[in-house]
């Protein structure tokens, strides 16, 4: 299936190659470079590129292109999903997935890639299994290894590989048994010029960090499960239980994992936590324009809005911005044409405002397009959908675990049109 | 300790040197000094040094540097105890083995050893590497390793075997038939770990062998939820294809309704009504698939969700389709690349079924941060979803898009508006007006696109829109984009009859500015002038002539040419000839309106979710989805347990009852023949073989017919025709498998034998035996198995025959005689038989290949059957892999190799079980120590000339009359010794050639008939073998026994 993998950085340097079948010359990437050049922005590179004898399926992540070479028919999502899994594994192993960390750990990267695919078909992608086969690098371990000459590579087949629950390894032991769940909700919304909601929905995920000994069997229930419109689960969740009782019952993987993701659709009324008053206009003459943005709280359920950031993609003709912010700092990048206003905490008493003039390229006609505003925000201790975890029960083990649930609301793709 | 740390410091220094060098020369091979350092490190005694060296080498490989020159130094470490070092060596080996084939062979024995390691991870990784080394010479070794691994106890090793199948297949496609056997075996595997991988192998090697799936279909459906996610994707795609060939269309119902509405009135034919009103009942297996895949829509793996969605799209009744919508929309939250693929599929779906996605229309609203290709796809879907009810919302949305900074996207939006306008007549006017407004846009792409779209819209209904053309004429002065100006002029010309007053005025204006216009505009001015001249020459004659004059002296040759052409065409003069008569018809021909339709219109010819669909062109290896069959194929093929089979067995019984007697008698005859044949020679066996092939073709022919035909076949025993028969048999084998697969509960090996046996003998006979006994399934299980074991042993030869016939150099004749190795009484229940397969041995060139059948006739399972390490007589023996467990009444066949060293001395060894040891010995007949070779007659005489004197032994014998024919001589000789027949030009001289297995010395045999005597001459360096052979030939040829 997957023939070869090339990692290419943003500057177009090919810094790693791995082949699972016979070697394919790296010149195949010329087709990719051609497409890359044509696309201008890295995001615009088409994920599937055709060459006379091969197909290049690529993803762009963390400023790295993962370019895989395919020779025959294969579901493209299969490859795309796998490449993302590779990137996630790197992140899991090295803390971040970047060119530097990959180059620094090239041997482990190679060992991982070797284990993840056999003849181009995924063999082990579950992080638990991989970690038993190849231990992630830590400073302590690499020191011990250099001194004792012992290795990072496991000698026996990970137990998970054979069991019916491949995500969990046997014999897990902790002195402090704890299970934490983060309910993270993101608001995807489009607001129009006048502030009315064109479209809004909530995407939620429940991230878990479970450090429990033995083979615990957990079940998580909600106060209001009916809210959830569409869900997808980690493979550990028993789907039948959910269907019949709306209870999430599972034997958790060890450590961090995403338990489920859910969707609360546009049909339900979605609370929009802030409002934005904006006026961006360009004058017919004089190559200048005016900008005035005010942000205020709307439905925040009594919580504070934090980490508020407004990003504006300005038209190409805008040269500079001379603005005045009542709160936070702003920055205009004349190269990328992005105006970034970092507000911070939203104070309902004194609404933050950004006001001033924009100067345009002289002689250029007045831009017709209107820039749109992208909002980023965070509200702690609130799930904007109102979803609440009722209780978490544990079966199968005797000890009493420490349990915790945290709620966060963030802005997802939150856009205000002007 | 100190020394160690000092060492590591020095490595770091070297490391920095390396990076410096890297920067200096990219992509070249590594510099000499550095590579010699690495070589030194690899050859040192310290593990840590070696490991460090390997790590650096892997670093080089990752960068794409050529490190192949280190191959000899690296390959030495392949047997290292250090597992990390070993793995890195594996990485290296797989990368370079193809380039350094000879050296790579050095490592093979290590892997062969590791294949027997007690640790399953080591076994599996040895197989992985062995099968990844793309060296054609080791194909037989790989084949053997795969076969063994396929029966490994560890599912992980079996999974690896499934992967190895594909590797071997890509290395040597000739192995296909053998690999299919392994696939068939692995498909029966119940482990979820294996399922995905073996289906992958199936798809790659033999996707057309859908018959292999039947028996495993329900199992695969039921396992699906527990299979790992990647396997799920592959299995779902395969099952989609399978279901399309096996079930009838669930959509027929809907189609029927439509048909009913239309035809019910006229159609009074009874039959037809009955057929139509027959309700559609979904095959329970079809339902099973849909039911078991549904929960997977909740998978976190986007590929799985997409796979299930396409399965529903292609297989589910239309009214059940809606459940996939939500899941697909959910995928839109995923990464950009995922969105791209999912949106493409939704675009295809939304053309056919708007209703599915309409409630989720807002999820396709475009964000300014989306990538361009995502935006375009969303736009496509929104356009597909547009209908009378939602068009106003969509158009409002489009208005924002038109203002986008992304001009390519804005242009695409304008096209989308155009499509909406043509599809929904209510909004055509609104759209047109909107588009007209856009004409004053400053951006060239937007304006050009608008004009083009307006042009298209007007072409569809020009008469109603003269006011728009007028409006465009008014705007004309303000429009600067040449393309747009040109388009407007074209419109004026094309529809000048609708705007009779304005068009000449526009032409007048253009005549003034002609010289300042862009070229494309000029061309259109000429065009407009010509058209007006034809329709309204009174007003425009002078103007046209003026413009044509201007054009005549234009700087651009294109315009000059066009002007000349137009002038000749429209202005009548004596030179212009016939063409000008048709000027009006040429210029004013009605032009067909362009069709505005989705680019995704025909995409559904590709299976959704595939690469071909994404590319909209067939990718290599794409497997077409077949149409639903009109009539459902037999459903019972998927039944696994015979006991539950209600109708089929009865039918079979009644069918066989008629011919019961005959078949029984036949088989008895044959068995008798077998027993006789085992005592001396091969005439019976070959005749039985012939009669078998005969009986296949004419199952119901009577005995006399049969015997006559088999005799006629005897008279022309050409090796050619024999080969044909064999291939025929193979074909039959494939065809008949599904019928016989009822007996899947048998252990695979016996199963395989029985299968072949069934085909080789009257397969219907065995069928009776089996289907009758299944009625007392439980009681008869044991005896049935026993029977099979017995038959399998008896017919072992036959099975070999079929296998072997695929290889190029097959022995002329293989006797089916088995010799007893261990009697069940002495073996405490374990009995063993061996026979010579007469094949080149796969374990070693100097070994004789043997097949050993072990059966357990005790009432307890025997464990750990193996051959002891000690060989008492010193022959080199390749032992078979220990058999972990042999159930009571079961038997297995294993192969082994013995190097007899060209002597008939018996090989003595110990056959051990967990508890006991039995001394056994194998005494080879001299004829088994040979292998056939082919050579020309000339070579034969030449070689014979070299082996005269001492090396020649000959004897004169008196032939029995029945042995005089050429066939019988041939047959007798080849049954005694494993030698090949040399074509002879002289009538009464027969020549045969072979070589000894161990030393490879030539053995040449010639038989000269001089009625009634015959002279046998044997020429060989191995005089002992020669004289022994001679003695055996003498007995064989003088013996009158058939």
Automatic annotation (TrEMBL), chain A:
<keyword id="KW-0333">Golgi apparatus</keyword>
<dbReference type="InterPro" id="IPR022775">
    <property type="entry name" value="AP_mu_sigma_su"/>
</dbReference>
<feature type="domain" description="MHD">
    <location>
        <begin position="176"/>
        <end position="417"/>
    </location>
</feature>
<dbReference type="GO" id="GO:0016192">
    <property type="term" value="P:vesicle-mediated transport"/>
</dbReference>
<dbReference type="InterPro" id="IPR018240">
    <property type="entry name" value="Clathrin_mu_CS"/>
</dbReference>
<comment type="function">
    <text>Part of the AP-3 complex, an adaptor-related complex which is not clathrin-associated. The complex is associated with the Golgi region as well as more peripheral structures. It facilitates the budding of vesicles from the Golgi membrane and may be directly involved in trafficking to lysosomes.</text>
</comment>
<protein>
    <recommendedName>
        <fullName>AP-3 complex subunit mu-1</fullName>
    </recommendedName>
</protein>
<comment type="similarity">
    <text>Belongs to the adaptor complexes medium subunit family.</text>
</comment>
<keyword id="KW-0968">Cytoplasmic vesicle</keyword>
<keyword id="KW-0653">Protein transport</keyword>
<dbReference type="InterPro" id="IPR001392">
    <property type="entry name" value="Clathrin_mu"/>
</dbReference>
<dbReference type="InterPro" id="IPR011012">
    <property type="entry name" value="Longin-like_dom_sf"/>
</dbReference>
<dbReference type="InterPro" id="IPR036168">
    <property type="entry name" value="AP2_Mu_C_sf"/>
</dbReference>
<keyword id="KW-0472">Membrane</keyword>
<dbReference type="InterPro" id="IPR028565">
    <property type="entry name" value="MHD"/>
</dbReference>
<dbReference type="GO" id="GO:0006886">
    <property type="term" value="P:intracellular protein transport"/>
</dbReference>
<dbReference type="GO" id="GO:0005794">
    <property type="term" value="C:Golgi apparatus"/>
</dbReference>
<dbReference type="GO" id="GO:0030131">
    <property type="term" value="C:clathrin adaptor complex"/>
</dbReference>
<dbReference type="Pfam" id="PF00928">
    <property type="entry name" value="Adap_comp_sub"/>
</dbReference>
<keyword id="KW-0813">Transport</keyword>
<dbReference type="InterPro" id="IPR050431">
    <property type="entry name" value="Adaptor_comp_med_subunit"/>
</dbReference>
<dbReference type="Pfam" id="PF01217">
    <property type="entry name" value="Clat_adaptor_s"/>
</dbReference>
UniProtKB/TrEMBL annotation, chain B:
<dbReference type="GO" id="GO:0006886">
    <property type="term" value="P:intracellular protein transport"/>
</dbReference>
<feature type="compositionally biased region" description="Low complexity">
    <location>
        <begin position="679"/>
        <end position="690"/>
    </location>
</feature>
<dbReference type="GO" id="GO:0016192">
    <property type="term" value="P:vesicle-mediated transport"/>
</dbReference>
<feature type="domain" description="AP-3 complex subunit beta C-terminal">
    <location>
        <begin position="774"/>
        <end position="905"/>
    </location>
</feature>
<keyword id="KW-0813">Transport</keyword>
<dbReference type="Pfam" id="PF24080">
    <property type="entry name" value="AP3B1_C_2"/>
</dbReference>
<dbReference type="GO" id="GO:0030123">
    <property type="term" value="C:AP-3 adaptor complex"/>
</dbReference>
<keyword id="KW-0333">Golgi apparatus</keyword>
<feature type="domain" description="Beta-adaptin appendage C-terminal subdomain">
    <location>
        <begin position="929"/>
        <end position="1038"/>
    </location>
</feature>
<dbReference type="InterPro" id="IPR016024">
    <property type="entry name" value="ARM-type_fold"/>
</dbReference>
<dbReference type="InterPro" id="IPR015151">
    <property type="entry name" value="B-adaptin_app_sub_C"/>
</dbReference>
<dbReference type="InterPro" id="IPR002553">
    <property type="entry name" value="Clathrin/coatomer_adapt-like_N"/>
</dbReference>
<dbReference type="Pfam" id="PF14796">
    <property type="entry name" value="AP3B1_C"/>
</dbReference>
<keyword id="KW-0472">Membrane</keyword>
<protein>
    <recommendedName>
        <fullName>AP-3 complex subunit beta</fullName>
    </recommendedName>
</protein>
<comment type="function">
    <text>Subunit of non-clathrin- and clathrin-associated adaptor protein complex 3 (AP-3) that plays a role in protein sorting in the late-Golgi/trans-Golgi network (TGN) and/or endosomes. The AP complexes mediate both the recruitment of clathrin to membranes and the recognition of sorting signals within the cytosolic tails of transmembrane cargo molecules. AP-3 appears to be involved in the sorting of a subset of transmembrane proteins targeted to lysosomes and lysosome-related organelles.</text>
</comment>
<keyword id="KW-0968">Cytoplasmic vesicle</keyword>
<dbReference type="InterPro" id="IPR026740">
    <property type="entry name" value="AP3_beta"/>
</dbReference>
<feature type="compositionally biased region" description="Acidic residues">
    <location>
        <begin position="691"/>
        <end position="702"/>
    </location>
</feature>
<dbReference type="GO" id="GO:0030665">
    <property type="term" value="C:clathrin-coated vesicle membrane"/>
</dbReference>
<feature type="region of interest" description="Disordered">
    <location>
        <begin position="17"/>
        <end position="36"/>
    </location>
</feature>
<dbReference type="InterPro" id="IPR029390">
    <property type="entry name" value="AP3B_C"/>
</dbReference>
């Amino acid at each position: 299936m997957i023939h070869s993998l090339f990692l290419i950085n943003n500057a177009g340097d090919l810094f790693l190659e791995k082949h699972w079948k016979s070697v394919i010359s790296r010149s195949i990437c010329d087709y990719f470079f051609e497409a890359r050049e044509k696309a201008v922005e890295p995001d615009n590179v088409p994920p599937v590129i055709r060459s006379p004898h091969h197909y290049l399926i690529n993803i762009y992540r963390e400023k790295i292109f993962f370019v895989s070479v395919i020779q025959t028919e294969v579901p493209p999502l299969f490859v795309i999903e796998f490449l993302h899994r590779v990137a996630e594994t790197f992140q899991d192993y090295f803390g971040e997935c970047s060119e530097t960390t990959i180059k620094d750990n090239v041997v482990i990267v190679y060992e991982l890639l070797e284990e993840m695919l056999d003849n181009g078909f995924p063999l082990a992608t579950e992080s638990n299994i991989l970690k038993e086969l190849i231990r992630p690098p830590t400073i302590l371990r690499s020191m011990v290894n250099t001194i004792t000459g012992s290795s990072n590579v496991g000698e026996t087949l990970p137990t998970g590989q054979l069991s019916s629950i491949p995500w969990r390894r046997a014999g897990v032991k902790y002195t402090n048994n704890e299970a934490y769940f983060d309910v993270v909700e993101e608001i995807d919304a489009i607001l129009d010029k006048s502030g009315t909601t064109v479209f809004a929905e909530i995407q939620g995920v429940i991230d878990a960090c479970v450090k429990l000994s033995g083979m615990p069997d957990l079940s998580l229930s909600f106060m209001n499960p009916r809210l959830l419109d569409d869900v997808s689960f980690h493979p550990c969740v028993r789907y039948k239980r959910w269907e019949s009782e709306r209870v999430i019952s599972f034997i958790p993987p060890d450590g961090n994992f995403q338990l489920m993701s859910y969707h609360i659709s546009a049909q339900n009324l979605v609370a929009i936590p802030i409002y934005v008053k904006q006026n961006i206009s360009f004058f017919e003459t004089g190559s200048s324009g005016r900008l005035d943005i005010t942000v205020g709280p709307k439905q925040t359920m009594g919580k504070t809005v934090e980490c508020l950031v407004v990003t504006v993609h300005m038209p190409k003709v805008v040269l500079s911005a001379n603005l005045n912010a009542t709160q936070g700092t702003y920055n205009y990048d004349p190269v990328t044409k992005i105006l970034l206003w970092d507000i911070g905490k939203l104070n309902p008493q004194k609404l933050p405002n950004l006001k001033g003039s924009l100067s345009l390229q002289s002689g250029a006609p007045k831009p017709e397009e209107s820039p749109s505003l992208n909002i980023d925000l965070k509200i702690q201790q609130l799930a904007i959908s109102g979803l609440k975890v009722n209780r978490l029960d544990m079966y199968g083990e005797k000890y009493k675990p420490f349990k915790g649930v945290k709620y966060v609301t963030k802005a997802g793709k939150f856009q205000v049109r002007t | 300790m100190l020394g160690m740390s000092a060492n590591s410091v020095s490595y770091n220094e070297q490391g920095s040197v390396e990076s410096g060098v890297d920067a200096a020369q990219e992509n070249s091979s590594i510099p000499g000094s550095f590579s010699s350092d690495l070589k030194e490190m690899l050859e040192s005694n310290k593990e840590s040094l070696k490991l460090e060296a390997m790590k650096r080498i892997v670093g080089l490989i990752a960068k794409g540097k050529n490190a192949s020159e280190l191959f000899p130094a690296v390959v030495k470490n392949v047997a290292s105890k250090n597992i990390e070092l070993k793995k890195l060596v594996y990485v290296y080996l797989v990368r370079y083995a193809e380039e350094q084939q000879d050296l790579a062979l050095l490592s093979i024995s290590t892997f062969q050893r590791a294949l027997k390691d007690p640790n399953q991870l080591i076994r599996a990784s040895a197989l992985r590497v062995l099968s990844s080394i793309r060296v054609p010479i080791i194909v037989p070794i790989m084949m053997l390793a795969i076969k063994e691994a396929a029966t490994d106890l560890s599912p992980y090793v079996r999974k690896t075997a499934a992967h190895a199948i594909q590797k071997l297949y890509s290395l040597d496609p000739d192995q296909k038939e053998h690999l299919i056997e392994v696939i068939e075996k692995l498909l029966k595997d119940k482990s979820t770990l294996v399922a995905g991988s073996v289906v992958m192998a199936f798809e790659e090697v033999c996707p057309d062998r859908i018959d292999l799936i039947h028996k495993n279909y329900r199992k695969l459906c039921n396992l699906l939820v527990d299979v790992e996610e990647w396997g799920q994707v592959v299995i779902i795609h395969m099952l989609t294809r399978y279901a399309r060939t096996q079930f009838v269309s669930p959509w027929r119902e809907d189609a029927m309704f439509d048909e009913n509405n239309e035809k019910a009135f006229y159609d009074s034919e009874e039959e037809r009504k009955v057929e139509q009103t027959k309700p559609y009942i979904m095959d329970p297996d079809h339902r099973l698939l849909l039911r078991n895949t549904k929960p997977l829509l909740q998978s976190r793996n986007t590929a799985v969700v997409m796979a299930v969605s396409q399965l529903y799209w292609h297989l589910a009744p239309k009214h059940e389709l809606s459940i996939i919508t939500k899941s697909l929309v959910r995928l839109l939250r995923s990464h950009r690349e995922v969105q791209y693929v999912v949106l493409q599929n939704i675009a295809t779906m939304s053309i056919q079924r708007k209703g599915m996605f309409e409630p989720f229309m807002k999820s396709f609203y475009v964000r300014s941060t989306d990538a361009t290709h995502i935006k375009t796809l969303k736009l496509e879907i929104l356009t597909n979803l547009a209908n009378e009810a939602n068009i106003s919302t969509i158009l409002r949305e489009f208005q924002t898009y038109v203002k986008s900074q992304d001009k390519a996207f804005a242009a695409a939006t304008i096209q989308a508006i155009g499509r909406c306008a043509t599809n929904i007549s209510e909004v055509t006017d609104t759209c047109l007006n909107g588009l007209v407004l856009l004409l004053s846009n400053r951006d060239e792409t937007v304006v050009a696109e608008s004009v083009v779209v307006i042009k298209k819209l007007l072409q569809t209904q020009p008469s109603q829109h003269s006011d728009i053309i007028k409006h465009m004429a008014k705007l004309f002065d303000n429009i600067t984009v040449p393309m747009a100006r040109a388009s407007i002029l074209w419109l004026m010309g094309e529809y000048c009859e609708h705007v009779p007053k304005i068009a000449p005025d526009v032409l007048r204006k253009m005549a003034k500015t002609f010289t300042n216009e862009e070229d494309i505009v000029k061309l259109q001015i000429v065009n407009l002038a010509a058209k007006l001249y034809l329709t309204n020459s009174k007003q425009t004659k002078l103007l046209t002539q003026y413009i044509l004059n201007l054009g005549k002296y234009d700087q651009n040759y294109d315009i000059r040419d066009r002007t000349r052409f137009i002038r000749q065409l429209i202005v009548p003069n004596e030179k212009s000839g016939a063409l000008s008569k048709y000027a009006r018809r040429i210029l004013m021909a009605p032009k067909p309106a362009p069709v505005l339709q989705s680019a995704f219109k025909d995409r559904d010819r590709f299976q959704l979710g595939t690469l071909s669909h994404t590319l909209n062109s067939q990718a290599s290896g794409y497997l077409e989805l077949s149409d639903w069959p009109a009539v459902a194929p037999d459903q019972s093929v998927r039944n696994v347990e015979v006991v539950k089979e209600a109708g089929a067995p009865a039918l079979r019984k009644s069918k066989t009852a008629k011919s019961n007697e005959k078949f029984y008698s036949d088989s008895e005859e044959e068995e008798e023949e077998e027993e006789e044949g085992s005592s001396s020679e091969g005439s019976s066996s070959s005749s039985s073989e012939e009669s078998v092939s005969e009986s296949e073709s004419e199952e119901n022919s009577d005995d006399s017919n049969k015997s006559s035909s088999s005799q006629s076949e005897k008279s022309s025993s050409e090796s050619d025709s024999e080969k044909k028969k064999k291939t025929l048999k193979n074909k039959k084998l494939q065809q008949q498998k599904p019928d016989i697969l009822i007996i899947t509960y048998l252990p695979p090996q016996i199963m395989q034998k029985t299968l072949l046996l069934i085909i080789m003998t009257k397969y219907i006979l065995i069928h009776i035996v089996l289907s009758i006994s299944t009625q007392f399934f439980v009681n008869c299980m044991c005896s049935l198995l026993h029977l099979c074991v017995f038959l399998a042993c008896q017919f072992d030869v036959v099975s070999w025959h079929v296998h072997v016939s695929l290889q190029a150099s097959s022995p002329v004749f293989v006797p089916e005689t088995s010799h007893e190795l261990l009697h069940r009484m002495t073996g405490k229940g374990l009995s063993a038989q061996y026979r010579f397969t007469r094949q080149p041995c796969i374990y070693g060139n100097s070994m004789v290949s043997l097949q050993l059948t072990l059966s357990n006739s005790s009432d307890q399972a025997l464990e750990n059957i193996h051959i002891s390490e000690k060989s008492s007589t010193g022959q080199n023996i390749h032992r078979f892999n220990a058999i972990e467990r042999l159930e009571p009444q079961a038997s297995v066949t294993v192969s082994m190799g013995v190097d007899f060293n060209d002597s008939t001395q018996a090989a003595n060894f110990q056959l051990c079980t967990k508890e006991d040891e039995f001394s056994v010995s194998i005494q080879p007949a001299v004829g088994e120590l040979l292998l056939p070779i082919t050579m020309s007659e000339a070579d034969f005489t030449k070689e014979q000339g070299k082996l005269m004197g001492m090396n020649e032994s000959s004897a004169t014998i008196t032939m029995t009359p029945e042995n005089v024919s050429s066939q019988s001589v041939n047959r007798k000789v080849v049954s005694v010794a494993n030698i090949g027949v040399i074509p002879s030009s002289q009538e009464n001289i027969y020549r045969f050639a072979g070589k000894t297995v161990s030393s490879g010395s030539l053995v040449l045999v010639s038989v000269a008939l001089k009625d009634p005597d015959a002279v046998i001459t044997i020429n060989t360096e191995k005089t002992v073998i020669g004289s022994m052979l001679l003695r055996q030939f003498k007995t064989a040829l003088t013996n009158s026994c058939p």
